[in-house]
Amino acid sequence: KPLAVCLGRVADVYRYCHVRVPEGLLKDLLPGPVTLVLERSEELNKDLNPFTPLVGIRIPDHAFIQDLVQVFGGPLALTSANLSSQASSLNVEEFQDLWPQLSLVIDGGPIGNGQSPEYRLGSTVVDLSVPGKFGIIRPGCALESTTAILQQKYGLLPSH
Fold first, then answer.
1. Which structural domains are found in the chain, ordered by start?
2. Boundaries of each YrdC-like domain copy (predicted)?
């Protein structure tokens, strides 16, 4: 599966992607529990997902990770702290079995309240690479609010 990247600010999206949606749309969805799939720019390392011209962009609504990305000075590749198709972890103890395979584990605290099942769904992944349309790649935890913004506020049409 392709890797998404984490950015620290909405302004960074314009550096790493060709954005064909209104800036307000980005600001309405980011930071938040949404991954936006856009056409990648030449600024991204060409070895990241070389089989696709698209990239997933995520800006979590979590000050620690936003600060980490800013200090790092560039996008961070994202992966889940769980095996593919398993429910998302809500705290670091839940993926303790993976720790021996990791170079570093940073505990930024629990996600959400640490128990709500909707947080286990992961981010809502939306393809915005086709102008005027959107495609839901993964429903995730913010499907209703995200589709309402895309359709009602910005008039985008589902791409199915």
1. 4-80+95-158 (3.90.870.10)
2. 1-142
